[in-house]
């Protein structure tokens, strides 16, 4: 395809006239992926995947490599920006019923799972105290798998404890997975353009569409400008806002931090994990906290696609958002009352949203359908 033909296709790409700013987070995610790939490649050529040298190599990058501190902080802050955008992107999909484009939704959910895995492997690489102990806690969850748990954990570690082989494997996975994510993102975009995008009203917009450029491309550029401005503001004034102070100390297997917790974007799943006393039950709940999104296209029973005209569904949605924030907050606190009770209540409410979604749709149909 020639460049002129590609440009013409881009200009004439039909989109709904009423899609709002919430749709711009898709292009922002693409920008975040590009940023993470470029900065990650730069860091990889200076990083050493060895437990004795990994922490020192991060210090070397930030102190000795020209502009290394910018690249390192951009990569770290960019990961947080990535998850902020993706959580808003998912929330928009839930609110406006975008999950009814089943293939697009399932590919997006798969992307989320791979992004979370990539971020987890990357969090271990600095080999700081919190990196080491968070990896120890999370990988030990595999031991709860009946019969195969110990074997799977030993295989993942490459030995009988987290050591050099573990760090090497995590570095390799953290480097390789982004290329798979790029391929899956391309598939996600192709499926989106084949199936068409949803709109705030949830109606068929085939009769009322406009070219993507310039009507929506300018909105994309405006939102990207805001995101880049925010990113460099954080980089300039508070570059360590998302970092845990414990991670500025080299990993020491002999000293356990007082409160072990992962990065903030994993805290909702971690909060659900620790709210269940049973190890296997907590592990299953952790996995379900993300994979339950897959069920959304198959449990939608309402005649109306978008929540724009569904007041009860809107109430449930905002309860879910509040619950998500509360779980994240409670997971930063020690495992003691009242935080354990708050975590258990909000974890239950989180899953109730997905379990009651079909019932809510059925009730709305009964109310709105004339006898």
TrEMBL record:
<dbReference type="GO" id="GO:0046872">
    <property type="term" value="F:metal ion binding"/>
</dbReference>
<comment type="subunit">
    <text>The cytochrome bc1 complex contains 3 respiratory subunits (MT-CYB, CYC1 and UQCRFS1), 2 core proteins (UQCRC1 and UQCRC2) and probably 6 low-molecular weight proteins.</text>
</comment>
<feature type="transmembrane region" description="Helical">
    <location>
        <begin position="338"/>
        <end position="356"/>
    </location>
</feature>
<dbReference type="InterPro" id="IPR027387">
    <property type="entry name" value="Cytb/b6-like_sf"/>
</dbReference>
<keyword id="KW-0999">Mitochondrion inner membrane</keyword>
<feature type="transmembrane region" description="Helical">
    <location>
        <begin position="284"/>
        <end position="303"/>
    </location>
</feature>
<keyword id="KW-1133">Transmembrane helix</keyword>
<keyword id="KW-0479">Metal-binding</keyword>
<dbReference type="InterPro" id="IPR048259">
    <property type="entry name" value="Cytochrome_b_N_euk/bac"/>
</dbReference>
<keyword id="KW-0408">Iron</keyword>
<dbReference type="GO" id="GO:0005743">
    <property type="term" value="C:mitochondrial inner membrane"/>
</dbReference>
<comment type="function">
    <text>Component of the ubiquinol-cytochrome c reductase complex (complex III or cytochrome b-c1 complex) that is part of the mitochondrial respiratory chain. The b-c1 complex mediates electron transfer from ubiquinol to cytochrome c. Contributes to the generation of a proton gradient across the mitochondrial membrane that is then used for ATP synthesis.</text>
</comment>
<keyword id="KW-0812">Transmembrane</keyword>
<feature type="binding site" description="axial binding residue">
    <location>
        <position position="89"/>
    </location>
    <ligand>
        <name>heme b b566</name>
    </ligand>
</feature>
<feature type="binding site" description="axial binding residue">
    <location>
        <position position="174"/>
    </location>
    <ligand>
        <name>heme b b562</name>
    </ligand>
</feature>
<dbReference type="InterPro" id="IPR030689">
    <property type="entry name" value="Cytochrome_b"/>
</dbReference>
<feature type="domain" description="Cytochrome b/b6 C-terminal region profile">
    <location>
        <begin position="202"/>
        <end position="371"/>
    </location>
</feature>
<dbReference type="InterPro" id="IPR005798">
    <property type="entry name" value="Cyt_b/b6_C"/>
</dbReference>
<dbReference type="InterPro" id="IPR048260">
    <property type="entry name" value="Cytochrome_b_C_euk/bac"/>
</dbReference>
<keyword id="KW-0679">Respiratory chain</keyword>
<feature type="transmembrane region" description="Helical">
    <location>
        <begin position="73"/>
        <end position="92"/>
    </location>
</feature>
<feature type="transmembrane region" description="Helical">
    <location>
        <begin position="315"/>
        <end position="332"/>
    </location>
</feature>
<keyword id="KW-0813">Transport</keyword>
<dbReference type="GO" id="GO:0006122">
    <property type="term" value="P:mitochondrial electron transport, ubiquinol to cytochrome c"/>
</dbReference>
<keyword id="KW-0496">Mitochondrion</keyword>
<feature type="transmembrane region" description="Helical">
    <location>
        <begin position="104"/>
        <end position="125"/>
    </location>
</feature>
<keyword id="KW-0472">Membrane</keyword>
<feature type="transmembrane region" description="Helical">
    <location>
        <begin position="37"/>
        <end position="61"/>
    </location>
</feature>
<dbReference type="InterPro" id="IPR016174">
    <property type="entry name" value="Di-haem_cyt_TM"/>
</dbReference>
<dbReference type="GO" id="GO:0016491">
    <property type="term" value="F:oxidoreductase activity"/>
</dbReference>
<comment type="similarity">
    <text>Belongs to the cytochrome b family.</text>
</comment>
<feature type="binding site">
    <location>
        <position position="193"/>
    </location>
    <ligand>
        <name>a ubiquinone</name>
    </ligand>
</feature>
<feature type="transmembrane region" description="Helical">
    <location>
        <begin position="170"/>
        <end position="192"/>
    </location>
</feature>
<keyword id="KW-0349">Heme</keyword>
<dbReference type="InterPro" id="IPR036150">
    <property type="entry name" value="Cyt_b/b6_C_sf"/>
</dbReference>
<dbReference type="Pfam" id="PF00032">
    <property type="entry name" value="Cytochrom_B_C"/>
</dbReference>
<dbReference type="InterPro" id="IPR005797">
    <property type="entry name" value="Cyt_b/b6_N"/>
</dbReference>
<keyword id="KW-0249">Electron transport</keyword>
<dbReference type="GO" id="GO:0045275">
    <property type="term" value="C:respiratory chain complex III"/>
</dbReference>
<feature type="transmembrane region" description="Helical">
    <location>
        <begin position="221"/>
        <end position="242"/>
    </location>
</feature>
<keyword id="KW-0830">Ubiquinone</keyword>
<feature type="domain" description="Cytochrome b/b6 N-terminal region profile">
    <location>
        <begin position="1"/>
        <end position="201"/>
    </location>
</feature>
């Amino acid at each position: 395809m020639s460049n002129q033909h590609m440009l013409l296709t881009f200009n004439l790409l039909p989109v709904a006239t009423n899609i709002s700013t919430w749709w711009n987070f898709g292009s922002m995610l693409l920008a975040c992926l590009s940023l993470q790939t470029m900065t990650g490649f730069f860091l990889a050529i200076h990083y050493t995947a060895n437990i004795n040298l990994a922490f020192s190599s991060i210090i070397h990058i930030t102190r000795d490599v020209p502009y290394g501190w910018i690249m390192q902080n951009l990569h770290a802050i960019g990961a947080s920006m990535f998850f902020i955008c993706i959580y808003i992107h998912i929330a928009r999909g839930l609110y406006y019923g975008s999950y009814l484009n089943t293939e697009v939704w399932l590919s997006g959910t798969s992307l989320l799972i791979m992004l979370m895995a990539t971020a987890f492997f990357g969090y271990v690489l600095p080999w700081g105290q919190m990196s080491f102990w968070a990896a120890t806690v999370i990988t030990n969850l595999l031991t709860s798998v009946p019969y195969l748990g110990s074997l799977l954990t030993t295989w993942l570690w490459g030995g009988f404890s987290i050591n050099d082989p573990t760090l090497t494997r995590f570095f390799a996975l953290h480097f390789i997975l982004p290329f798979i994510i790029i391929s899956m993102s391309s598939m996600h975009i192709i499926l989106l353009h084949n199936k068409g995008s949803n709109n705030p009203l949830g109606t068929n917009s085939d009769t009322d569409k406009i070219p993507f450029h310039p009507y929506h491309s300018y909105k994309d550029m405006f939102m990207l400008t805001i995101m880049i401005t925010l990113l460099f503001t954080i980089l300039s004034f508070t570059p360590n806002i998302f970092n845990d102070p414990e991670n500025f100390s080299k990993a020491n297997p002999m000293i356990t931090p007082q409160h072990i917790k992962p990065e903030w974007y994993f805290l909702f799943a971690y909060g659900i994990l620790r709210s269940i006393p049973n190890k296997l039950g907590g592990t299953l709940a952790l996995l379900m906290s993300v994979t339950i999104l897959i069920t959304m296209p198959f449990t939608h029973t309402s005649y109306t696609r978008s929540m724009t005209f569904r007041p009860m569904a809107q109430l449930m949605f905002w309860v879910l958002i509040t619950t998500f924030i509360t779980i994240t907050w409670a997971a930063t606190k020690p495992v003691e009352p009242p935080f354990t009770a708050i975590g258990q209540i909000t974890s239950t409410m989180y899953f109730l949203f997905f379990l009651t979604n079909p019932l809510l749709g059925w009730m709305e149909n009964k109310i709105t359908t004339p006898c």
